[in-house]
């Protein structure tokens, strides 16, 4: 029985998406993995699911550097619409950044639960437990 | 017929009425027989030189004689017709008057008046008109008689006389004045030079002589009386006209204005101002003659006439004829006598011949002369006219005679008067000019030579104003304008005119507008030299002023008392001095007002004056009270002038010394104090009296100079000079000389070398003291021994000198200021720094140099107040407005007097600031570069880590046990992909690093077209695939110096982007254009692609690895590279873009 029902990957790099998907599934972390290649799609996805009354993802792994809408912009937008969502997913930033500025910035968002340096590993997934 | 009817009517209605008409005819009733009334009347009317008209009470013309017709014809153009109405024959204008007068006559009045024809231009005829009522016996008015008597000739003569008299008056009035002073006995003390103009005498001819000597014997009593009245009435102007003998022995009329000024001590004479009025007198005389003559003529308009019958017997004659008959007949007229019985036998033949001619129908004229008992000659004009009856037969003779003596005489007199007038004008000291309205001189009398020296003919055509002194030009113009505006009124002005010697002389100008006058037709201007009068006026005015100054407003009080001390006169100054009304004490003894304590000795002194017959005594201070019982200290000089005819009294000349008295008392008290003060101050006082040539030295002078007291007798300036230190001697000498001359006050400091060898420093100050008249009276000097202070000062000066040298030579600026912000001094360094001179800088205030509101300045003031010192940096304004950064040390200081001021030492730190700023900007740049580099390293490590992370993940997923596993195969593919990605990223980073690290890339001259062609090779496929078009225009700028790899990279990146991010529904169209803007060469790339939301992405548009579109092709490197390349070469990039419409990238290259 997987730990979570649904995970959303917001990531533009297809290899990363593929690798993450594999790791999540191999470790029985979630039964379903959905990916969006930038923040805008992710937002649209969340809004649509919520509006359709469907179940929203439990976990979001969010990349920062993406075209069209990067991770920061996504988080900003989410702040604006989070009240309208049926449920607020737990968000983990998944990035290869080394800029300390990014870490402190991530902390300014209450919606962000943790900051994960790539690659996503089995050990880390095991620390994420349902609330 | 009508006349017959009239006479018949008159006769029938009232026989007396006819007699009224005939009254003057002195008709003897018995001789009327054989003569019809008509005959007589007609003879009378026809024979007279005057015009007659008889009207009935309805203005119907009953009769007129030929002269009236002539007159009427002459002036109206209509001929009277008997029976017609007068209105029908007269012109409208004068008719109204005529009717008015006629109506009066019909009411019983006799109306007489004078008329002029024509009233305006041309030859003027004068007529005396008379309107008489014709009454019936019962007194009823039945008509009117009109008489017209031509008086043209008389009036013209009179008018001419009046005019010449007027002209004459204008010229002669106020004839040249002379001025004399006489004593009480009319002995002439002084006579002005102008007496020569008036009487021909030199002043020396008359001086010391009695003024009566030259008076006409007939007039002496009158003149003596006049002089007496002058003596009795001080200060009153009394005028008289009398004759005096001039130098040539002729009797000349003069007018003398006398004024008794004996009471005026400055003048002490009877002042007389007289002038020649001979011409005026003569004019008066001529006028009287003319008037008499005129009245004679006017009173004799009725001529004498005699009517003879055909047998030459006297039928009728008038009263005039009766009166005059003795002059031309040997016997009295009597009706019935033959005229020949009256004629002198010597004339008999001539008369018979004459009558023969008359009976032949001729009119005869003759003149006779007659000398009466008074040996006066009479001239008569006689006219003999035949009288025709209605059958044209001669029935008698009508003789009219008129005495033309007076007329002849008048004519003669006018001629004579004119000659006299001309003479007077020519010889007059007045000149006459006639000018037109523009001041052009059209006539000048010859006497102009006497006044201004010009010849009359030289002035004709010149402008009168050209002769004016410039100072008077405006006034003269204004006056002339006034004259032009007011015909016939005379305007006066005194001014200076240029004479022929180019000198300005005072001229009295009288101008009269006489354009209306046919004889002048211009502005009549008379000029007279009044230089001497001006001088006299000035003299009088001056002496009057002095008199006033002395007697009225002076501090002296002058009273005249008699021998009993009774006050006769007090000068007005008594009011200002003692508040006593000037006349209130007159009649009382002056001793009444003397203080009881002083009374006895004052009286004694006064009595003593009279007893001893001394002329003058002085009375020391005594007290005199005013009406308010207030006492004044007076000091008086009493002069006995009882024997002096002009005063006949005792003159009490008093001075209020109340203040002096008080001062004297105070002075006594002060003297001691002053002495000690002088001692303490070591202040000596020296005074030299120019007038009395005496010295005064205070005791201190001797002490200072250390010489024996009593030296003042021999004290002179040479002593002072001798003891002055030789180095100072010249300057002291010069100073004293200037001061004595009053050029400037003395103020000199000098060293003295005293006889005993002691050296001193003294300060001498003083100057001349003028008296009231402004004349130098005294030279006073204070001498102060300043040796002690001078020594101290010298020491101070030495110190100051040192300070000054520091101050002057300091590199740092020094400003000495006061707490209120005034600048006391600034040294050369601060002046150089701020661009002011040392004189200018001390006129400035703190606020001129500092921004008082700025924080550093406020801080400075605050801190200096609190701690007495401020060290810091402030900005100071340069003269030219810019500010200079300075380092300032501002210290509170106090001088010996306890005054606070600030010493500000100022150093220009512009250079230091500049270096500081440079360092700061360098640091900033370094920090930025550092940050950039850090950012770059973060980004590159991120981008390197991402594929590495992928590789790690892929490796972890790889199942080594099942190499053939399908998933393993996929992983290997991905592994390869990630490795390539890593490699590509590394390559990109190397490219970026190359650009960023090497700015010194070789530049070539590049042609934009070539660059584009080269770039197109790489993108043509892409372009063709997407139906893209590139539209390039490099016509404005074709070439650029740049690195080809960089420029191609820029072109490639921008063009690739434009195609890559093309619109989904449009084929890409890219416009490239090169142009110059300011210092830049600009290449703009405009596309019609997707555009960029600059609001959202603008800040990270040129960031590394920033992508804004979903396109898989972009890595977020292109614009970063372009920007880096452009910036590395000193350029910049600007973007304009709108989502959905397209973007324009403008690349600015340094040209």
How would you sum up this structure, described in words?
The complex is a heterodimer of chains A (131) and B (1151). Chain A has 131 residues and is an alpha/beta fold. Chain A has five helices and five strands. Chain A has a five-stranded parallel β-sheet, with helices on both faces. Chain B has 1151 residues and is an alpha+beta fold. In chain B, 42% of the residues lie in helices and 27% in strands. Chain B contains 36 helices and 42 strands. In chain B, the strands form nine sheets. A five-stranded antiparallel β-sheet of chain B has the order 2-1-5-4-3, with helices on both faces. A five-stranded antiparallel β-sheet of chain B has the order 7-6-10-9-8, sandwiched between helices. In chain B, helix 1 packs across helix 2, helix 31 packs antiparallel against helix 32 (966-997) and helix 33 (1008-1025) runs parallel beside helix 34. Chain B is elongated, with a radius of gyration of 64 Å. At the A-B interface, helix 1 of A face helix 31 and helix 32 of B.
List the helices and strands and how they pair.
The complex is a heterodimer of chains A (131) and B (1151).
Chain A (H helix, E strand, L loop, with lengths): L3 E7 L3 H13 L3 E7 L2 H13 L7 E4 L8 H11 L8 E6 L4 H8 L4 E6 L4 H6 L4
Parallel strand pairs in A: 1-2, 1-3, 3-4, 4-5
Chain B lengths: L1 H12 L1 H8 L6 H4 L4 H11 L3 E6 L4 E4 L1 H11 L15 H15 L4 E7 L7 E11 L5 E10 L1 H21 L4 E6 L5 E4 L3 H5 L3 H4 L13 H13 L4 E9 L5 E11 L7 E8 L1 H22 L4 E6 L4 E4 L1 H10 L10 H4 L2 H15 L4 E8 L5 E12 L5 E10 L1 H23 L2 E6 L5 E4 L3 H4 L4 H4 L10 H16 L4 E9 L5 E10 L9 E7 L1 H22 L3 E6 L5 E4 L2 H6 L17 H17 L3 E10 L5 E11 L7 E8 L1 H24 L1 E7 L4 E4 L1 H7 L11 H7 L5 H12 L5 E8 L5 E12 L5 E10 L1 H23 L3 E5 L5 E4 L1 H7 L3 H4 L4 H4 L5 H13 L1 E9 L5 E12 L5 E9 L1 H48 L8 H32 L6 E4 H18 L3 E5 L5 E4 L1 H17 L8 E9 L2 E7 L7 H4 L20 H11 L3 E7 L3 E9 L1
Helix pairs in contact in B: 1-2, 7-11, 7-15, 11-15, 31-32, 32-36, 33-34, 34-36
């Amino acid at each position: 029985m997987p730990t979570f029902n649904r995970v959303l990957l917001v990531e533009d790099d297809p290899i990363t998406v593929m690798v993450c998907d594999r790791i999540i599934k191999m470790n029985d972390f979630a039964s379903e993995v959905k990916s969006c290649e930038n923040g805008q799609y992710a937002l649209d996805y969340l809004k649509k699911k919520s509006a359709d009354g469907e179940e929203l993802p439990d976990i979001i792994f969010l990349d920062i550097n993406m075209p069209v809408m990067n991770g920061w912009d996504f988080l900003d937008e989410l702040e604006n619409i989070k009240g309208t969502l049926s449920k607020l997913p737990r968000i983990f930033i998944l990035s290869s950044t080394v800029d300390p500025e990014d870490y402190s910035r991530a902390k300014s968002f209450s919606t962000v639960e943790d900051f994960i340096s790539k690659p996503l590993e089995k050990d880390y997934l095991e620390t994420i437990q349902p609330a | 017929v009508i006349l017959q009817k009239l006479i018949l009517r008159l006769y029938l209605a009232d026989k007396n009425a006819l007699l009224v008409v005939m009254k003057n005819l002195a008709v003897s009733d018995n001789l009327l027989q054989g003569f019809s009334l008509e005959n007589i009347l007609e003879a009378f009317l026809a024979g007279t030189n005057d015009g007659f008209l008889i009207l009935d009470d309805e203005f119907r013309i009953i009769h007129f004689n030929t002269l009236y017709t002539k007159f009427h014809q002459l002036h109206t153009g209509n001929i009277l017709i008997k029976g017609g109405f007068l209105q029908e024959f007269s012109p409208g204008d004068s008719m109204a008057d005529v009717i008015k007068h006629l109506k009066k006559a019909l009411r019983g009045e006799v109306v007489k008046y004078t008329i002029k024809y024509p009233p305006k231009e041309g030859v003027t005829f004068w007529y005396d008109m008379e309107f008489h009522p014709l009454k019936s016996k019962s007194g009823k008015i039945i008509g009117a008689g009109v008489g017209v008597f031509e008086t043209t000739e008389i009036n013209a003569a009179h008018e001419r006389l009046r005019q010449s008299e007027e002209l004459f008056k204008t010229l002669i009035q106020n004839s040249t004045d002379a001025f004399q002073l006489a004593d009480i006995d009319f002995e002439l003390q002084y006579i002005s030079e102008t007496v020569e103009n008036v009487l021909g005498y030199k002043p020396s001819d008359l001086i010391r002589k009695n003024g009566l000597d030259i008076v006409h014997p007939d007039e002496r009593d009158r003149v003596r009386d006049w002089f007496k009245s002058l003596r009795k009435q001080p200060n009153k102007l009394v005028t008289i006209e009398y004759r005096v003998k001039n130098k040539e022995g002729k009797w000349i009329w003069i007018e003398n204005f006398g004024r008794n000024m004996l009471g005026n001590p400055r003048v002490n004479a009877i002042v007389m101002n007289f002038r020649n009025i001979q011409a005026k007198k003569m004019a008066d005389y001529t006028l009287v003659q003319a008037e008499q003559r005129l009245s004679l003529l006017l009173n004799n308009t009725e001529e004498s006439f005699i009517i003879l019958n055909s047998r030459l017997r006297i039928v009728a004659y008038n009263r005039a004829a009766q009166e005059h008959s003795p002059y031309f007949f040997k016997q009295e007229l009597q009706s019935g006598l033959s005229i020949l019985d009256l004629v002198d036998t010597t004339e008999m033949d001539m008369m018979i011949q004459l009558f023969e001619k008359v009976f032949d129908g001729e009119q005869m004229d003759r003149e006779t002369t007659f000398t009466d008992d008074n040996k006066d000659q009479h001239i008569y004009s006689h006219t003999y006219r035949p009288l025709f009856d209605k059958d044209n037969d001669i029935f008698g003779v009508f003789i009219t005679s008129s005495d033309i003596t007076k007329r002849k005489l008048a004519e003669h007199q006018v001629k004579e008067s004119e000659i006299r007038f001309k003479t007077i004008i020519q010889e007059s000291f007045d000149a006459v000019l006639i000018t037109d309205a523009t001041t052009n001189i059209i006539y000048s009398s010859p006497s102009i030579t006497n006044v201004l020296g010009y010849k009359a003919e030289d002035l004709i055509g010149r402008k009168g104003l050209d002769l004016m002194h410039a100072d008077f030009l405006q006034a003269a113009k204004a006056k002339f304008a006034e004259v032009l505006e007011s015909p016939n009124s005379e305007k006066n002005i005194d001014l200076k005119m240029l004479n022929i010697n180019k000198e300005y002389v005072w001229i009295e100008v009288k101008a009269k507008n006489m354009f209306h006058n046919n004889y002048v037709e211009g502005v009549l201007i008379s000029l007279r030299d009044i230089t001497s009068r001006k001088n006299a006026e000035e003299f009088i005015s001056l002496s009057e002023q002095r008199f006033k100054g002395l007697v009225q407003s002076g501090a002296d009080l002058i009273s005249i008392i008699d021998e009993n001390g009774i006050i006769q006169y007090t000068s007005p100054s008594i009011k200002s001095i003692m508040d006593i009304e000037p006349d209130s004490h007159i009649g009382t003894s002056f001793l009444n007002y003397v203080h009881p304590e002083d009374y006895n000795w004052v009286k004694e002194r006064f009595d003593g004056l009279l007893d001893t017959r001394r002329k003058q005594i002085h009375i020391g201070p005594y007290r005199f009270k005013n009406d308010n019982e207030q006492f004044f200290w007076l000091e008086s000089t009493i002069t006995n002038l009882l024997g002096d005819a002009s005063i006949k009294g005792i003159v009490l000349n008093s001075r209020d010394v109340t203040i002096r008295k008080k001062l004297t008392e105070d002075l006594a008290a002060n003297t001691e104090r002053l002495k000690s003060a002088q001692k303490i101050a070591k202040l000596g006082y020296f005074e030299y009296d120019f007038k009395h040539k005496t010295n005064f030295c205070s005791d201190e002078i001797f002490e200072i100079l250390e010489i024996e007291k009593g030296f003042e007798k021999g004290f002179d300036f040479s002593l002072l000079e001798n003891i002055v230190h030789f180095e100072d001697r010249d300057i002291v000498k010069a100073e004293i000389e200037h001061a004595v001359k009053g050029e400037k006050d003395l103020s000199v400091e000098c060293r003295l070398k005293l006889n005993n060898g002691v050296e001193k420093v003294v300060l001498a100050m003083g100057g001349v003291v003028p008296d009231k008249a402004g004349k130098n009276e005294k030279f006073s000097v204070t001498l102060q021994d300043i040796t002690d202070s001078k020594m101290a000062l010298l020491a101070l000066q030495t110190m100051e000198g040192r300070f000054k040298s520091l101050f002057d030579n300091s590199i740092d600026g020094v400003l000495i200021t006061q707490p209120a912000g005034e600048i006391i001094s600034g040294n050369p360094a601060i002046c150089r720094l701020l661009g002011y001179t040392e004189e200018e800088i001390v006129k400035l205030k703190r606020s001129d140099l500092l921004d008082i509101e700025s924080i550093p300045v406020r801080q400075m003031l605050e801190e200096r107040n609190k701690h007495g010192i401020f060290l810091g940096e402030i900005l100071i304004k340069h003269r030219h407005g810019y500010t200079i950064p300075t380092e300032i040390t501002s210290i509170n200081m106090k001088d010996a007097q306890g005054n606070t001021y600030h010493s500000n030492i100022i150093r220009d730190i512009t250079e230091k600031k500049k270096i500081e700023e440079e360092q700061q900007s360098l640091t900033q740049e370094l920090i930025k570069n550092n940050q950039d580099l850090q950012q770059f390293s973060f980004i590159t490590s991120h981008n390197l880590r991402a594929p590495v992370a992928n590789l790690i993940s892929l490796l972890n997923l790889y199942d080594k046990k099942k190499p053939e596993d399908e998933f393993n195969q996929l992983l290997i593919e991905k592994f390869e992909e990630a490795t390539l990605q890593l490699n590509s990223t590394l390559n990109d980073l190397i490219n970026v690093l190359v650009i960023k690290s090497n700015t010194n890339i070789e530049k070539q001259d590049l042609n934009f077209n070539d660059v584009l062609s080269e770039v197109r090779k790489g993108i043509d496929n892409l372009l063709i695939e997407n139906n893209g078009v590139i539209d390039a225009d490099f016509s404005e700028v074709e070439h650029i110096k740049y690195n080809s790899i960089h420029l191609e990279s820029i072109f490639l990146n921008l063009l690739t982007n434009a195609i890559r991010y093309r619109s989904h529904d449009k084929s890409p169209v890219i416009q490239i254009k090169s142009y110059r803007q300011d210092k830049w060469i600009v290449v703009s790339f405009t596309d019609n692609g997707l555009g960029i939301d600059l609001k959202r992405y603008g800040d990270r548009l040129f960031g590394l690895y920033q992508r804004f579109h979903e396109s898989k092709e972009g890595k977020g490197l292109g614009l970063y590279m372009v920007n880096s390349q452009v910036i590395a070469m000193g350029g910049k990039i600007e973007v304009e873009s709108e989502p959905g419409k397209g973007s324009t990238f403008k690349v600015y290259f340094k040209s």
